[in-house]
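Late entry, written up from scratch paper. The run itself happened at the end of the previous shift, but nothing got recorded in the book at the time, so transcribing now.
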Amino acid sequence: STKTIERDGKKYFPRQDITVFLIMGIDREGVVEDSGFSRNDGDADVVVLAVFDETDKSYDLVCLNRDTMVEMPVFDIRGKAAGSEIHQLALSYTYGSGLSDSCENTQITVSDFLYGLEIDYYLSMNMDVVGILNDAVGGVIVNVTDDFSAVDPTITKGELKLNSEQALNYVRTRKDLGDQMNVSRMKRHEEFMSGFFKAFGERIKESDTFALSLYEDIADYSVTNCTANTMVSLANRYSEYTLDEIVSPEGENVVGKDYMEFYVDEEKLDQLIIRMFYQEKKK
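Output as recorded:
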């Protein structure tokens, strides 16, 4: 996006010093498969933008609620574009075969939602990847605040180093847990991600081949527009960056007719977009 926007008499233009990576967690297990159809049965349960700031060598995570009601491109049964409709953000991935077309549909949806934000790379991962990532760094350390006894009694309150099964239960479960809301689950996603990125950075320092072998381990369960080379060089470069902040657009949960619906606070979203993705045009 090259468009300048104006707020309170000040002009802002899109930042040129950021690299934006869209990460999608898909609620499917097993290797990635082509559904052979214009729909697939995966939802993007996790939608996160990693925004790397090339100027001060830091990154932010922008976590979007899967229940966010947004406008998205939809396909007819022949796979042809059929205009746009408003659905939960998670469903943007359901259009397409479950391969790059589905990722691109989510990419377009997120970009449009954020004023035409330029998204450089994407990576979607099936559920199996959670355990692989967790084990690759020797177990992600989290601080458990929810009561998991009904779900997985081995996940006890307080600081815990997760094994692969616990990791999946920790990030995936919504039912039988606290208020059962996605917002609470997103807090756990954020904690898991920041724990993972920290451990990941340490592992990369220890081994030149770590990023490549991890990439090979998740390849069958993921879809990306990066080559292995690109992914490895990005991983090596950004593992040096420090995590600055984790943010989520604010809004309101509403019980819709079929499922939960989350409506963002447009004014706060506007402020968030300008702060994260724009810079002021100096006179």
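The CA atoms of residues 1 and 116 lie 6 Å apart.
(Scratch paper discarded after transcription.)
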